[in-house]
Q: What sequence folds into this?
C-alpha cells in the first residue's frame, strides 16, 4: 500500500469494493496527483467492470483524507477575503440564485437540510425568502463557525454518516456536489431518504461524466478531483440507484455555470506546462479569463447546459 507524508503524518489507506453493486472487479483508469490543492500523494482511479461506476481504490481513510480539505478549500470560498469584492460576490451568488429558483419551483418552503453546506452561502440565499426553516451539516470546523456566524440556520458539525436526525422531518434535502465525496454513498443516501417526508424532495448535483469537458480534458477534468472525489456515477447508474431507494426522478438538468469548471480543468491541463512553456501558459490563462472569452462563451455554454453536456448535472427527485 502506498504511503506519503503530509504534515508529519503517515497517510492511511483502505481497499474498497463498489458501493453500488458490491463487485471488486475493476479496471485501472489512471493515477494522478492532487491537482487542486497540490498536496502530496498519488491517487488511483478505477472503473467497476460490473456497473461502470468510477471510484478511488485504494483510497484514504477519513482521518487522512480530512487533511485534503484545507480551510481555503473551494467550497469554503465565502470565508475568503476576496468575497468583499462585489463582483466576486455576484459570481459566487449566481449559482445559488439559480439553485434556489429551481428548488422553489417544486417546494416553495418548509424544512430544508443541506448536507455539505460549507460556509453557508446557499443557506443564506434561501433565507432571503423567509419561507424556510434551515439546517446545515458540514464537517469542517472553520466552515461551520463561519456559517453559524453568517446564517440563521441550525448548523451541525459532522459527516452525515455520523449524526442522527429525526426521521421524515424535512420537506427537502440538498447535496450540492457532495455525493462524490462520500465513502459509502448508497448507505448515506438510504439514511437521507429516511429523513425526507412522504412526497418530499431530494436535489443533488454530481460531476457529469457525460459532459463535453470530461471528454475533452480526460485525466485533467476537474470532476475527478483526486483524492477528494471517491465515487463518480454514470447517469444510468444514478437512475438505478434512485429507483432502488424509492425516488422518482422528475428532472435531470445542468443548472450551474460551467465557465469556472472549464477554467479549472484548463488550469489542471496547463500545470503540465509549468516549467516548459510558462509564457504560453500565461497567455492561454489570460485569454480564457478575458471579458471577450467570457462573453463569447455565454451562448455556447447556455446551449450545452440545455443539452445536459456541461460539467455538473443536477438531479431532482421525489420520494
A:
Amino acid at each position: 500500500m502506498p504511503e506519503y507524508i503530509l504534515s508529519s503524518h503517515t497517510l492511511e489507506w483502505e481497499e474498497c469494493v463498489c458501493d453500488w453493486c458490491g463487485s471488486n472487479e475493476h479496471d485501472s483508469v489512471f493515477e494522478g496527483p492532487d491537482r487542486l490543492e497540490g498536496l502530496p500523494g498519488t491517487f488511483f482511479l478505477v472503473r467497476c467492470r460490473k456497473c461502470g461506476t468510477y471510484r478511488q481504490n485504494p483510497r484514504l481513510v477519513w482521518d487522512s483524507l480530512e487533511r485534503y480539505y484545507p480551510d481555503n478549500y473551494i467550497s469554503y470560498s465565502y470565508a475568503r477575503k476576496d468575497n468583499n469584492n462585489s463582483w466576486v460576490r455576484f459570481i459566487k451568488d449566481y449559482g445559488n440564485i439559480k439553485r434556489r429558483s429551481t428548488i422553489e419551483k417544486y417546494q416553495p418552503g418548509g424544512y430544508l437540510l443541506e448536507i455539505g453546506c460549507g460556509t453557508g452561502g446557499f443557506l443564506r440565499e434561501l433565507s432571503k425568502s423567509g419561507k424556510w426553516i434551515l439546517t446545515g451539516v458540514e464537517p469542517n470546523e472553520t466552515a461551520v463557525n463561519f456559517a453559524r456566524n453568517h446564517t440563521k440556520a441550525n448548523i451541525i458539525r459532522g459527516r452525515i454518516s455520523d449524526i442522527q436526525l429525526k426521521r421524515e422531518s424535512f420537506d427537502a434535502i440538498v447535496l450540492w456536489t457532495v455525493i462524490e465525496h462520500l465513502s459509502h454513498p448508497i448507505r448515506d443516501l438510504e439514511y437521507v431518504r429516511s429523513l425526507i417526508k412522504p412526497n418530499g424532495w431530494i436535489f443533488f448535483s454530481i460531476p457529469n461524466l457525460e459532459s463535453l469537458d470530461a471528454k475533452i480534458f480526460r485525466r485533467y477534468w476537474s470532476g475527478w478531483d483526486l483524492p477528494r472525489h471517491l465515487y463518480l456515477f454514470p447517469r444510468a447508474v444514478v437512475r438505478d440507484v434512485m429507483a432502488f431507494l424509492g425516488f422518482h426522478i422528475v428532472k435531470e438538468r445542468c443548472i450551474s455555470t460551467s465557465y469556472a469548471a472549464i477554467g479549472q480543468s484548463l488550469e489542471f491541463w496547463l500545470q503540465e506546462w509549468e516549467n516548459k512553456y510558462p509564457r504560453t501558459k500565461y497567455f492561454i490563462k489570460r485569454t480564457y479569463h478575458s471579458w471577450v472569452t467570457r462573453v463569447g462563451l455565454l451562448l455556447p455554454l447556455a446551449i450545452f447546459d440545455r443539452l445536459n453536456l456541461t460539467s455538473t448535472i443536477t438531479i431532482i427527485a421525489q420520494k
Summary: Residues 86-106 form the longest helix (21 residues).
